[in-house]
Specification:
This protein has helices at about 15-25, 40-50, 65-75, 95-100, 115-145, 165-175, 175-180, 190-195, 200-210, 255-320, 325-355, 370-385, 405-420, 480-490, 515-520, and strands at about 10, 30-35, 55, 85, 105-110, 150-155, 210-220, 225-235, 240-250, 365-370, 390-395, 400-405, 430-435, 440-445, 495-500, 510-515. By secondary structure, the protein is α/β, with parallel strands linked by helices. The protein binds adenosine-5'-diphosphate. Adenosine-5'-diphosphate (ADP) binds near residues 420 and 423.
Length: about 525
């Protein structure tokens, strides 16, 4: 680079012999000598190139040396070019003052001393080359910064006013240099950051630490925001005096959006894993609960099966003693009841397991539900009478047609009626009602008994559920009856609910069945 910067020296003299002498002295200095034989020609040459120095004869016909110097200084391009005047004799003091006023840097008096002339010209040439190099370097640097479009690179004065602006800054922030240079940089920040004094705080930290890096929202000229990485560096001169700040800003909006998206996906995933874990936990506890109920059921089953066995065995022992006929008849009655109990239990068990495994097939026929209720009343009568309950039955005048399995429907309603009798203290009241309600047949079994706590209402239909196990259960019971009821009703396309206002305030069971289709149309 050093060698490639040429240094031109302009030699101005009206005497060709003098020019020749100068050329001889300077010929091998490695500078480029340009000659001019008049002041006018010198000015022409000055238009064509920049010179490292001008060696200028003072006395010339036409434009004199001082006039030429005056014009050289007047032109911006040559304002700083060093001028060395060459005079025939030592100039008077007034002339020297005048010459310096015109910007002369030196005087050489003829006869010239070659070594002195060479030394001076070489020094000017070096100085010139040095300046050119620095100028080119800063020009490159300026172009580099100016032309960078991916980064906003700009400078602030010590008060925070924008001092320079590059293409990247214009692209990123939307301001042209003319809009923004001289304005305070706080306008790049969102109002909430301005309110907490953040822009000035950033400068304070950059001053304190030399450099400060930040990430946050910044505002474009049109008011939109972008996510920025910002590096602020305090700029100090050789004496350590703060001269301003450089700011380099990058737009990271896209990266931030990607990160946000990732974070969102991650949260979503975590949430789904949590949900799934909770689901599994619920399932596990449901399984554990079912298992617990099954254990309880086995214990109850063993107990309930044994209950009737003891009296039957006793009865046998009594019969072996051949008692009197009336006594024998009472024992046989008792044994019959207990056996009935046992058979009933085993039937229920078999039914539940067959319904659960889909082995029960309904044999539907067109039925008048009033007739089914009648059969139920017959079947339930012994239990109702045993407890001295009052049974009231309300039936509509017209038939209530349903398509169903008669035996199974009687079984459903009998289970409900027997429960009502069983779970109502003696001398209670049971009301059995059948009605037609908007395309459905509804049978209601209401009692004045123990009632069911609200939290147990949805559970009583699960197998092996019993509200109060401590209850004296002379009637037996495994918590299977209502499970069976629900399964059979659902098989008929219907539904069943339990309602109770609370303990000791009675219960109402409601069975809803679809009316036979053509019966609805009628
Ligand atoms: P079980 O009668 O053999 O115990 P069920 O399945 O018929 O079994 O009934 C389940 C439980 O529901 C009973 O143990 C009882 O606690 C409760 N229950 C059923 N019907 C009534 C009713 N009418 N009044 C009060 N509680 C009832």
């Amino acid at each position: 680079m050093t060698a490639s910067v040429p240094a031109h020296i302009l030699l101005v003299d009206d005497q060709p012999a003098n020019l020749l002498a100068l050329e001889a002295i300077l010929g091998d200095l490695g500078v480029n000598l340009v000659r001019a034989e008049s002041g006018e020609e010198a000015l022409k040459r000055l238009l064509e190139a920049d010179f490292a120095a001008i060696l200028l004869d003072v006395r010339m016909p036409g434009l004199g040396g001082f006039e030429v110097a005056h014009l050289v200084r007047a032109r911006p391009r040559s304002r700083a070019t060093p001028i060395v005047f060459i005079t025939a004799e030592e100039p008077p003091a007034a002339t020297v003052v005048e010459a310096y006023r015109l910007g002369a840097v030196d005087f050489l008096v003829k006869p010239l001393v070659p070594a002195v002339v060479r030394g001076k010209v070489a020094a000017f040439a070096d100085l010139y080359r040095e300046k050119e190099r620095a100028r080119a370097e800063s020009e490159h640097f300026r172009l580099l910064v100016q032309g960078t479009t991916d980064y906003a690179i700009f400078m602030l004065d010590p008060e925070g006013r924008v001092a320079t602006w590059n293409a990247g800054a214009e692209r990123l922030k939307g301001y042209a240099a003319t809009d923004i240079v001289g304005r305070h940089f706080s306008r790049f920040y969102p109002p909430e950051d301005i309110a907490r004094g953040w822009p000035d705080e950033e400068l304070r930290r950059a001053v304190a630490e030399g450099r400060f890096e930040d990430e946050g929202w910044r505002v474009r000229k049109d008011g939109t925001r972008f996510w920025a990485n910002v590096v602020i560096t305090a700029l100090r001169d050789a004496r350590g005096e703060l001269r301003g700040f450089s700011k380099v800003t990058r737009d990271l909006t896209e990266r931030r959006n990607r990160e946000e998206e990732l974070r969102r996906l991650n949260n979503d995933l975590e949430r789904r894993v949590e949900e799934r874990t909770a689901e599994l936990r619920d399932k596990e506890s449901a399984l554990r609960e079912a298992n617990r109920r099954k254990d309880e059921f086995l214990a109850t089953l063993a107990h309930e099966l044994r209950n009737p066995l003891a009296p039957i065995r006793n009865g046998l022992a009594v019969l072996k003693l051949r008692p009197a006929p009336e006594a024998a008849a009472r024992v046989v009655d008792m044994m019959d009841r207990q056996l009935g109990q046992l058979v009933h239990l085993v039937d229920d068990l078999l039914d539940v397991s067959r319904v659960s495994s889909g082995k029960v097939v309904l044999r539907p026929e067109r039925l008048d539900l009033r007739e089914v209720v009648g059969a139920t009343v017959e079947a339930g009568r012994p239990a109702v009478e045993a407890h001295r309950h009052t049974l009231v039955v309300h039936l509509p005048d017209a038939p209530v047609w349903v398509d169903g399995d008669r035996t199974r429907l009687v079984q459903v309603l009998t289970n409900l009626l027997n429960n009502a009798a069983k779970y109502t203290p003696d001398g209670g009241r049971i009301v059995l009602t059948a009605v037609t309600e908007g395309g459905h047949a509804v049978v209601r079994v209401a009692d004045t008994g123990l009632g069911i706590p609200a939290d147990m209402l949805p559970k009583v239909f699960e197998a092996f559920t019993q509200v109060d196990r401590s209850l004296d259960r002379a009637q037996g019971g495994l918590g299977l009856g209502l499970a069976l009821v629900k399964q059979l009703v659902v098989m008929h396309g219907g539904a069943v609910w339990a309602e109770s206002p609370g303990a000791d305030r009675g219960s109402t069971f409601r069975v809803r069945l679809p009316l036979a289709e053509d019966a609805v149309a009628r």
